[in-house]
Fold these 2 entries.
Entry 1:
Amino acid sequence: MTVTVLILLLLALGAVGFFLGRARAMAASQGDMRRLHSLPNFYGWHGAIMAFLPALFFLTLWSIAQPLLIERQLAGFFPAEQFENETDRILLMADVRRVAQGIDSAVVAGALTPDQAIALNIADDDVRARLAEVGVALGSAVTAEVLQAAQSYRELASTGGLFRSIFTILIALGCLAYAIKITQADFRARNRVEAVALGMLMLASTIAILTTVGIILSMLSETIRFSTMYPFADFLFGLTWAPTFQGNSQLGLLPLLWGTFYISFVAMVVAVPTGIFTAIYLAEYASPRVRSVVKPLIEVIAGIPTVVFGLFALVTVGPFLREWIAEPTGLGTSGSSVMTAGIVIGILQVPFISSLTDDIMNAVPQSLRDGSYGLGATKSETVRQVILPAALPGIVGAILLAASRAIGETMIVTMGAGASAKLDLNPFEAMTTITVKIVSQLTGDLEFNSPETLVAFALGITLFVITLGLNVFALWVVRRYREQYE
Amino acid sequence: MDDQLMTERLVDAQDIKITARGVQVYYGEKHALKDVDVDILTNTVTAFIGPSGCGKSTFLRCLNRMNDTVAIARVEGDIRIDGEDIYDSRVDPVQLRAKVGMVFQKPNPFPKSIYDNVAYGPKIHGLARTKADLDGIVEESLRKAALWNEVKDRLKESGTGLSGGQQQRLCIARAIATGPEVLLMDEPCSALDPIATAQVEELIDELREKFSVVIVTHSMQQAARVSQKTAFFHLGNLVEYGNTSKIFTNPDDPRTESYITGRIG
């Protein structure tokens, strides 16, 4: 029985548990629901949860443990010297699994009868060719040990699968029976169901945190590997970025860091004033009718995929800046430039900043506006001296959020700023950013064992640290102003 | 009562500060205020009483054109301060509001320091040439609002950190600081406890020496305690206007009597 079928079965048992639990509670109430501790549905849910959850938990554990145990069993088929290191063992076990699965799918496809499959041996059959017929491609010819191990794997897996199904169903039935047995009028089903619900809420909240931790750990381990192959100080303080795939690469971070900050700076110079002025207009000056049209229109920008913005940078903004500004002033001849990418990223961030700022300004109490107008302040004085200061923590948060998005932006930079890593002050020169280089170091067919590819992880960690620093700074600013104002 | 009558006789001799004739206010389709005529005297506390939604706050907000900030509000009629029509197109509502200060129902100090709260008005109207001038205005306003002794050592702390009663007195100090001639108070004690209310009421009585005070209140005891003149509003009409002692002891209109004895509300 496959895992899918088992889970469907468990769900069916859960449904049965729901109706049994509910029916038993109704019976126990003797027609008067007030006798029950909880509402009847809670007894139903209790039955369903008891039938489903423990069995699912067992099934998960078994599914994790089984392959590990089988691999340990199979180690006996191979001479110890083949297991000298971890990589060899993983490759060998992958071969075994592949052959085993190949034979299984050959049986399913009808190319082999079950008996023939068991009787396969390396002397009489060309196993690789037989498996190729049913669409299972193997990298190399199958050795006698691998075939033997694969046969053993199939046997163990099928026995394991059988026990797995039996135990899972037994556990489900056992727990279900127990749940029905303890369902009495004074049984506190609601408390137990709500405890499970609480557990699910907590699980959901930890998933995001655990994922973050996982990302950091995986990047960190690859970064450490990178630092064993390439001097880390050279990476951090190197002024040249020149990866070659024959070795002798120069992998200096600074040109990329410079490009990232330069482009983000230009983007924020465009986005912050535009966004905040837009928000001030929308929140304080625009009539409700104008607002109801303009606000959604601006927010449409946020929904445009960044690659479309990239196209806009490539075919419109870039050539425009080159022909009208860069070439006449002699600053450059390239359409791809810091300005192109920065301006387009800035436009992309405008709705972000304006929308958040607008919400924050609307949240400033009307009583503060009245107070200011009541003292004879004009609208602009009120905005500048009362509303903006009151909304400042939120606005700083919005700006920093936009800044971390600008720093992480990839597509527009690729298409608008080019891919040459340079340390240059001229904003009409092509430059590039950390994100673009992460992509370019990892695209193509490559192995994760050279500094040229592993540097991507070091770059990723750098980016992570920068955005983390920005967020910490944002929190600090917000807290500082909170202390002063509230 | 004799004291009260004494002050009323004094008040009757006062000059008229604000005249309102035939004032109508519409909120969209709703006719919120119908044909109101009132004379408000200098150095007098005038109380507006009446049940909720009767138009007393609406009328108060006409006196400094705060209704201008409400998009759907429309005001008709003639309101003059010192003989000058405040709805004339040449009058800038911003300057008018510097002359007619306002204190709101809920204390609404700005999220700034106590000093900056009081200095806000003088700064935007350019009333102080030097820092010393400004310091002087702030201190004087806080003294008039009976708050100086409590806050003089912490002027740099946030105004929102004060207690409710202190916040309301801060708002009064803020309104006084622009040097108004009239002070409008929209239920200034409704968010305060009895002790803070007593302090603010005492303050209102002192403010009468310098300003005309108009106060909207739901508490008839408060109206009787602090005011010399009382106007009773009902369903958008000004029912009766006269000396406070007369309104509370011998009203002309049966509706006024019903309201102050608690039969309508």
Entry 2:
Amino acid sequence: MLLLITNIFFKIKNESIAILIIKRSIIFSFILVFTCLAQVNNNTNNLFLLGQSYIKGAKYIEAKEIFIKLYSQQPENYQYFHSLNEVYIQLKLYDSSIVLINKRLQLTPIDINLYGIMGSTYYLSGDEKKAFAVWDESIKKLEPSYINYRVLANHAIERRAFEKAIEYLQAGKKISDDPKMFSYDLGNLYALTMQFENAAKEYCTILANDPKQLGAVESRILSYSGKPNALEATITVVKNWSEKRNINFLFLLTKLYEENENYDNAFEEYLQIEKAQNSNGRYLLTFAQSLLGKNKFTVASKIFNKIIKDYSTSPFLSSAKLGYTKALGEELKGEIIKTSPVWKPIYIKKNILTQKTNEVINAYNELINKYKLSEVGAEAYFRIGEINLEIQNNFDKAVENFTNVINNYTSSMLFADSYKLRAKTFIRKGELNKALSDYDFLIKDGRASNELRNTARFNKATILFYKGDFENASNLLKQISNFKNDNSANNAIELSLLLNTTKSDSLHLIKYAQAEFLINKNKIDSASLILKNLYLNKSTSFVLKSYSTYRYAQTQVALDSLSGALITLSEIIKEEKQNIFADKALFLKGQVYQFGLNNNIDALNMYQEFLEKFPNSIIVDEARKEILKLKNKNE
Amino acid sequence: MLKKFLIILFFLPSLFGQSKILIEMDLSQTDHLKAYGITYNALLKGLKADWLLNYKGGSFLIDYTQQIVNECRVYGVSFQILDAIQSTEIYSVIQEKANNMNVVRLEKAPKIAVYVPPSFQPWDDAVTMVLEYAGVPYTKIWNDEILKGDLTKYDWVHLHHEDFTGQYGKFYASFSNAQWYNDNQILYENDAKKNGFKKVSEMMNTVAEDIKKYVGNGGFLFAMCSATDSYDIALAAHNVDIASNIYDGDAADTNAQSKLDFDNTLAFTDFKLEMNPYIYEYSNIDIQPLEIGSEENDYFTLFEFSAKYDPVPTMLTQDHVNVIHGFMGQTTMFRKETIKPGIIILAQRDGTNQVKYIHGNFGRGTFTFYAGHDPEDYRHAVGDPPTDLSLYKNSPGYRLILNNVLFPAAKKKEQKT
């Protein structure tokens, strides 16, 4: 180019023109050179992109050609090296990969990542020993650094050589300024390989050095605590951790105990926390409230009580008292069910837990004294009323408490329910008109739910039945039967059936209704006498006799006249399909043997006879369940 | 008349002085599934039972004992007690040439093994569920047991959702971060290491080959859902790496498709692999949801076989209905074009190439593949709660599984064809 310009220069006499031409020529030649260079770069880039797309499309042979070419042009380019190696690996050309990496190592002999890649290649080729040797030697060759260990650990993890990765991370942790990060990775790997004890040790190390990590540590441990033996192993480690133990170990331990449903141990740890933190029962309260949500009433009430006793000036005292009373009340209900003969269709309600009942009532009264004008106060009155009615048979007191809610807490959530229970109490007292008036209120009350209104309708119909007003009772029952999805609908159909099939024998039906009323009032012996007369009376209509006999047998069971009950039930069973209660009688006979007389052999025979005689009965599944239970017991 | 006499003479030893319990399996049956359990347990007790093929939905006739009667009552299985004459009448009806019926004597309760991992699985196995519901005992086995040759202890082996290709069910795209997926992978890897295999895919291939040997030696194999196609794919890929690096560390063979050995498979041939590791599908054996269309139209039909000449497929297709609602799975239905010639198609979606249920012989044994996951849950997704079988006592789809359980109990007779 310069030769050309010089020639032109000598040929052109005009100096200024010549200078101009030289200037322009220089500019032109620069443009030309840059354009050529840019063209070369563009081609290389396009080739690289093409190679990448071949890799994505799994066309590794085509990709190999491109990357060999590119790498030979620019051996120092890391991207070309990496892509070519990837292609070799995909094509399982492990020897070529090793050669390539070795060449690269000559250029950058202190690159730990290259040793990592080389080890990986050996590992993939199936030579695990050589892979580990390459990694181990690289550590010796290069200066000891926690970064090097981490890089090699990452390569080992990628190859799923977890034990080797753990080895490197442990080594890195020893020389690192921030061992926490290594501990997290180690904890993860130990948990993954189900070495839960070691995982717990790593997490304890973190917690010992940095208490702020509690949340992170807790969530890591809980992520695998459901695996077999994980929780037990972790608890043992955390409990016995002695190095630099801080308060957070207690918090972690309580969580682990809770997870393991070992609430007593968790309680002990919370007591330690309270002592250390001086928090006026705050932690205990949270724990007890969570137990209440899990229906663990006994331990919850114990904890609430502890707060009430030991932290009398605590701002959490009121919450503790409310929680305590609720837990106590639920516990009482559970105990009453446990001590009642619930297998009997009718049983005499006796309260043998007077001390515990009084304890619950006192606790509710305390709440009333403290929070009289709030919803808590309304609930306390309502719950006491419930106890008066269902547990103590103290109907006057019950009416007083429900009336209190009705008169003084008109906006309470329990307003309508108080009406319902007051009406129920009036029936028990024999004050049927007052009960009717309460049910009438509920039927009209816009705040009562549809279900509650239907319950009120059914109960009103039952009162009319007790009073012998069968016509109006029937009409009311028809209204309920229209609500097919309502719980009262089935009861209404049953009572309608009785009324419709027996109303022609109204004189005896009135007596039957009286007996039912007496059963409701818990006067079972008086009811039993009436039913017995109906059963023995030859003039009682056939259907009503069936009802009376079965009900009489039930009262005999309730009165513990079991041998008498067995005779009555046998009478019903004898009638077989003519008696609509024959299936139920046979099942009840089995129950009498099973629970009343502890005679499992005869009970089993009764249930089997039941299945034989009444395979289409609606209670057939219950009989099956009892047979299986008895068989399992015998085995 | 002479014929009737001969029939009575034939069954006389088993009828003499003894009543029978007839468990009808048509629409009158109150609990079809438990009926199989009753029959299986009767065999366990050493009683004789006859399977009355095509007689009232494939009924069972069992020697009378009070214990069986009580069990029927307890488990809610409807039955009738027949005297010798009534039983003879049934036998003679069945033996009538004009009736497509047959009697198969069930002799011995087969020993059942279910191949299932010991760890938690976020899905349920229809077979273990129905075995438990019916009260049929079984043993769980896993790779260790198969690799040490324990399969010979069992007459019937069931495979359900396991992946024999070493690709962990191809769940990577959706579940690679899920705890259960990682636990599963570790479980397989540890198993492979413990049993001396470098890769999971290699171990699974050996397991698949061992199962094949078991069938060849006279075993009964029943597979459902993805165990069907993934099993055959593993057999076809015995000489080639089909698992991508995200599954086994190294790359899949780029020419894997051309290296498949279809001569080594049991049921499928000429299928095309799905090599993309992120796609939740193994091959084109499985029918895709788009091809199936709407759930409302998804029904498959059981073929009818000659009970007297083809008792085996007849046993496998005993049911109280012959059109059954479909159900999906990782493998929902088999593409007809990929099924080997000679394999018996037991059920298919009418007018399509979608096959639900197949049966074949290999060596001295047989295999049955039933596509889909849970016959009473159309789309049983990962993590869904198990189906409560007490709500599906008369499930025709589940009955097909239980046919397979009793099938090995049948006395082997020479085929008439």
